[in-house]
Specification:
Layout: E1 5-7, H1 9-12, H2 15-18, E2 22-26, E3 32-36, E4 47-54, E5 57-71, E6 77-78, E7 81-84, E8 87-91, E9 96-101, E10 105-111, E11 114-122, E12 128-135, E13 141-153, E14 167-171, E15 174-179, E16 182-187, E17 192-194, E18 198-204, H3 206-210, E19 216-221, E20 224-229, E21 234-240, H4 261-269, E22 273-275, E23 280-282, E24 285-286, H5 293-305, H6 310-321, H7 346-360, H8 364-383, E25 390-391, E26 398-399, E27 413-414, E28 417-418, E29 425-426, H9 427-447, H10 452-470, E30 471-472, E31 477-478, E32 481-482, H11 492-498, H12 506-519, E33 521-522, E34 525-527, H13 544-550, E35 556-557, H14 561-572, H15 575-581, H16 585-588, E36 600-601, E37 609-610, E38 614-615, H17 616-628
Antiparallel strand pairs: 1-9, 2-3, 3-4, 4-5, 5-6, 5-13, 7-8, 9-10, 10-11, 11-12, 12-21, 13-20, 14-15, 15-16, 16-21, 17-20, 18-19, 22-23, 24-38, 25-26, 27-28, 29-32, 30-31, 33-34, 34-35, 36-37
Helix pairs in contact: 4-17, 5-6, 5-7, 5-17, 6-7, 6-8, 7-8, 7-9, 8-9, 9-10, 9-11, 11-14, 12-14, 14-15, 14-17
């Protein structure tokens, strides 16, 4: 059974909790439904149908919300909730007795003598949702629904316009709203439809206000839907971009709640996969990320190989291999246009994912295809490719960098300011390079490639330089970059320590782990900069430029728990301590995005989650380390 996350009555009625606990349901092609337990849309990205109009991108908020009132004899009472400037109306969270989400989002209300259960289900592989309101009480009531909609890019805002919608059609049991060639069909066969149309103005999204962004939307109501519901009866509303679609079949889940960590992590993994005519991939995070090459490759071992999706891993890697340009896989697929390749590490993570996938399950045809791709990667890196990425023949290490371009995972940029440029030879880039050529050497031996000697020579040259160039005896840890040298205490050295073909000296690794444990490790992840280093920022708060400036300057990233735990087990053998390091994961799954692990946390206590509520590599690396390194269940 899917893991269920539940808020009780006290939590539901406390907006500090229910308006900050978010849920998401995904459809496998990039679309989703998302909101808060309270029912208030606190982000511009929230909506009961956010369609991927050009899967897996083109995400458009179509059905933003449904206003609902219940009438048992007196005045109608609202069970929905919206934030307006200075006010919440209706205040339906006061009537909310329970919220839960597993494969379905469920709200249970008690208002006057009426008991109402709302269930929202998303349809797999199609942009559609089914919303059901059921009379679970003993008496009848009148239910009135007002669908509130927009046709807006999910990154943007929506304002009232005389020209919206371009087309509005009413037929028996169906209302269609069309704008910019995108149609939203509302299927409501049992409803009494009333010709009530108009704009609802100035919805306010608290999370966007906190980020210093435009926080207001206007929404359009095309009609009013009324249902007289006897006990046990339901009102069913289907919203879809497809003209013909049936309601989602009822989904019944057990009341038994499974709190074991491994099943919870594996359940959470499913929402990140997308498969479309364009490609198979992994969404980096919900709500605002698309599929990023780096995130996808880091996530494959945890999300695919430890959840029985080895074939899916092969499909993803094959699709990315087909997009290699000058030896680089895409850094990210954008909403429109050609993919970006501004990354020095995504391709090296790609090689690591190929190795781990073949190690998990050998497939000869896939291995041969990948060998050809890896040979292309190797040749371009040796001769030099985009953004100054090339092997330095003087020491065999990989150098990279170009003014104004961020190429490592620490990629924050504010205007023209690259916050952590890390030009030269970063420690994890060179750990990844050595790991990559060793993986190529391994694969060449398996498939009989004549390039084996080339890979061996490259690996030995880089390995011979790694320790002399990166180890800092006085500080007792590895430099973050060389040429130019940067001795700042950062967690990137852990990546070099934890890779399958790590070049580090075990004794040096143990010493560095001691420093890292004291300065960087927190219950929620690792700080990106030591708290005693110049430029440290302990709070991930403020406007978007302030957030970007703090992103890799002390902010904690949960995904780094994976490399840390792997290195800890490998060099100390202390699995019990490693298990303790991951003990907070269960709480992390329920304190922000329900069933997800946040992108970041504050560096200083008390550590609050921030950024993206469902981050793929946060979940993937914790899952991988939990299963692979400590044998968790």
């Amino acid at each position: 059974m899917p893991t269920r996350y539940t808020l009780d009555e006290q939590q539901c009625r406390n907006l500090e909790i229910s308006a900050r606990r978010e849920w998401v349901l995904t459809n496998g092609i990039g679309g989703f439904a998302m909101g808060t337990a309270s029912g208030i849309n606190t982000r511009r990205y929230h909506g009961q149908l956010v369609a991927a109009t050009s899967p897996p991108t083109g995400r458009t908020v179509l059905l933003a919300a449904v206003d609902a009132t219940v009438q048992t004899g007196g005045n109608p009472m609202g069970i929905s909730a919206n934030q307006y400037p200075g006010a919440i109306y209706p205040e339906g969270y006061h009537y909310l007795r329970e919220f839960s989400v597993d494969g379905v989002a469920v709200w249970k209300y008690r208002v006057a003598n009426a008991h109402v259960e709302k269930r929202l289900s998303i349809h797999p592989n199609v942009n559609a949702v089914t919303i059901e309101y059921r009379n679970t009480g003993r008496g009848p009531f009148l239910l009135t629904l007002r669908p509130l909609m927009s046709h807006k890019d999910y990154h943007g805002n929506f304002s009232a316009s005389d020209g919206y919608p371009q087309s509005l059609m009413f037929v028996d049991g169906k209302t269609t709203v069309k704008n910019d060639a995108i149609a939203l069909h509302l299927l409501h066969p049992e409803a009494m439809r009333m010709p009530v149309q108009g704009w609802y103005y100035r919805f306010e999204h608290q999370r966007e206000s906190e980020r210093g962004l435009d926080a207001r939307d206007d929404l359009f109501c095309p009609c009013e839907l009324r249902y007289e519901l006897l006990p046990g009866q339901s009102a069913v509303l289907v919203a879809s971009t497809e003209f013909e679609v049936s309601p989602c079949p009822p989904q019944i889940y057990s009341d038994e709640r499974n709190y074991r960590l491994t099943p919870a992590l594996k359940d959470a993994a499913a929402r990140f996969f997308v498969s479309t005519q364009e490609r198979s991939s992994i969404i980096a995070g919900y709500p605002w990320f698309t599929d990023w090459g780096r995130d996808t490759m880091i996530s494959i071992p945890g999300l695919c190989l430890h959840t029985g999706r080895v074939a899916e891993a092969r499909r993803i890697l094959t699709d990315y291999a087909s997009q290699i340009h000058k030896g680089l896989i895409p850094n990210r697929f954008v909403e429109s246009g050609d993919p970006d390749t501004n990354t020095a590490d995504a391709t090296l993570w790609f090689v690591n994912a190929v190795y781990k996938t073949l190690e998990a399950e050998w497939d000869e045809a896939f291995a041969v295809r990948m060998m050809r791709a890896l040979e292309e990667v190797f040749d371009w890196h040796v001769r030099g490719t985009l953004f100054g990425i090339r092997v330095d023949p003087a020491d065999g290490l990989l150098t990279q960098g170009e003014p104004g371009v961020q190429l490592t995972w620490m990629d924050a940029k504010v205007g023209d300011w690259v916050v952590t440029p890390r030009h030269g030879k970063p420690v994890e880039i060179n750990g990844l390079w050595i790991n990559a050529v060793r993986a190529m050497e391994w694969l060449a031996g398996k498939v009989g490639s004549p390039r084996s000697a080339d890979f061996t020579a490259a690996a030995e040259a880089a390995t011979a330089s790694f320790e002399p160039r990166f180890w800092h005896e006085v500080r007792g840890h590895y430099l973050d970059t060389v040429d130019p040298g940067d001795a700042s205490l950062r967690p990137n050295q852990l990546i070099a320590m934890s890779l399958p073909f790590s070049p580090v000296d075990p004794e040096h690794a143990r010493r560095a782990l001691g420093v890292i444990a004291r300065e960087l490790v927190t219950p929620a992840g690792l700080r990106t900069l030591g708290p005693n280093e110049p430029g440290y920022r302990g709070r991930f708060r403020g406007s978007l430029p302030e957030l970007d400036a703090a992103y890799h300057q002390g902010t904690v990233w949960p995904w780094l728990l994976g490399p840390y735990v792997t290195a800890l087990v490998r060099y100390t053998g202390d699995r019990q301590e490693a298990k303790k390091v991951l003990r907070n994961a269960r709480q992390m799954l329920s304190e922000y995005g329900l069933g997800g692990i946040a992108e970041v946390y504050d560096g200083d206590e008390p550590q609050s989650p921030g950024g993206c509520p469902w981050q793929a590599w946060s979940l993937a690396e914790i899952l991988r380390a939990w299963v692979e390194d400590v044998g968790g269940d």
